Amino acid sequence: MRGFRLVAILATMAACAGPTPPDPATCASLFARYDAAVRLHPVSRFDDHGGEVPPGAVSRQTVALRANGCLTSSADLDGLPALAARLQPFRIEDSGPTIQAMPVHLGIVTSISDEAFVTRYFRGFGYRSRGIGAEGLGRRIYIGPFTSQGALDQALAVAREAGFIAPYAARYTRF
Fold first, then answer.
1. What confidence category does residue 8 fall into, taking pLDDT thresholds of 50, 70 and 90?
2. Residue 10 has pLDDT above 60, yes or no
3. 158: which residues sit within 8 A by CB, 6+ positions away?
4. What confidence tens digit (pLDDT) does each residue in 12-68 have?
5. What whole-number distance in Å separates Cα of residue 67 and Cα of residue 92?
6. Contact (CB, 8 A) for 143 and 108
7. Which residue among 38, 66, 86, 119 is least packed, with the fewest CB closer than 10 Å?
8. H/E element holding 119?
9. For the whole model, what pTM was predicted?
10. Domain extent for 149
11. Is 61 inside a domain boundary?
12. Number of domains in the chain
């Protein structure tokens, strides 16, 4: 009987501790796998009822991104207005070595209203912004492209401060 009580106490304590925050390194790895799966299987197929079904490799990565908390929620973005106010006046630092033009993948938001919210703030910083649908996940948000290492590094730092879990330079995405 004591064993059951101990298990119940431990389960209660774990539930009270709240969810574990997502690990940026895990999310970065999962985004890389998701990108690879989308590049290999860019077209969905349709089920018997006319609904789109992503290919198996893409579906597995979609599930993994969700299960590991890698999507950016509205709550994750709560600090964006304060960040924007703190960073004003903001200037994009075009410094360091020249790099091949590439955008930054901020993350995936789960609603159109979050996409509009993020777009408004990042455009206020002077960044070009673009959202692309991510089947089964939401909207992928990109800013840029950037042609200097300094501008790229600055954009990645701003993205992390804004609440995005694992922003990265998107080397294989046309912007």
1. very low
2. no
3. 83, 87, 125
4. 444 444 467 899 999 999 999 999 888 887 666 655 555 555 568 888 999 999 999
5. 35
6. no
7. 86
8. helix 112-124
9. 0.80
10. 75-169
11. no
12. 1
